[in-house]
User: What shape does this take?
Amino acid sequence: MTAAKSASHMPYVGIASFLKAPVCADLDYLDADVGVIGIPFDEGTMNRPGTRFGPRALREQSSLYEQYLPGEGYYDIELRQTILRGVNIVDCGDVPIQPLALEANHNRMTQSIKTMLSRGALPISVGGDHSITYPVVQAFSDIGEIGIIQIDTHADVFTFYESDLTHGSPMINVARNCPNVTKFVQIGMRGLMLGEKDYSDSIARGNVIITSDEVRSIGVDWVLDQIPEMPYYLTFDIDSMDPSIAPGAGTPEPGGLLYHQARDLLRGVAKKGPIVGFDLVEVNPLYDPTGTTALLATRLVVDFLGAIFHERQARSERRPAAAEA
Assistant: This one.
């Protein structure tokens, strides 16, 4: 490798696309296994703004994980295996957001994800505040029955504001307006912002609610046992993590998950059924000048992608064996 080529792999050199992946400026020409799209939107924020800068922060931190040899993936020493070998990842840029144009912004989010799905790519949305999950999930209306796994501090079912399109209400909006979403599994719940009636109503509808304390005290394996098998969309709010390792969150709360707990949850979720898409939201770099939160978020995205494609391969290998039997 020449000195010039070697230098091009430095994190501080070149365009800061996600994982320094190729960029697709026009989704109609997307040709990839995975499309990563930024949604720099934080007009649904009720606490502290700044998550609109989340996608850019993740891209910058993700430069650390550039694939030196495209297509070769990453060797994960803890797994003793290579992940994402042969998986084509493309950065799809950002959904164009116009200030105060809520309906137009939501429509662009939905249409962007629909286009990515039509091109056969697994869509990954990077926010932005958690309100983006509702218009994103609307893009999956034609793919059949799915469940949602939400890893978060808050249940996001608030309805007492004049507008229910805040980052505190995406789950209630999905429940009301996305009939193909038939199951909700909420993991990591903690704090003082879920009303008793909201909790009891959710349980009565057959939803699964698992607290942060239950993850810690009973364990990840037990949590995974509570999740039925079916296709899932996953939404991951970075405030589910402990503020000691993720201070740059939109609405932080004392306590929370640690990295290995979240990683093991994501690996287990990938085994529960096909993952149709996922988002990672609420990274607020204005409250974390170290970049630690964005780096953690990036690593969780890579870990989850590795698990998704490992399970895809395992399922494809099992199908011929089942057919022969």
User: Anything to note?
Assistant: The longest strand covers residues 181-189. The mean pLDDT is 92. Residues 103 and 135 are 10 Å apart (CA to CA).
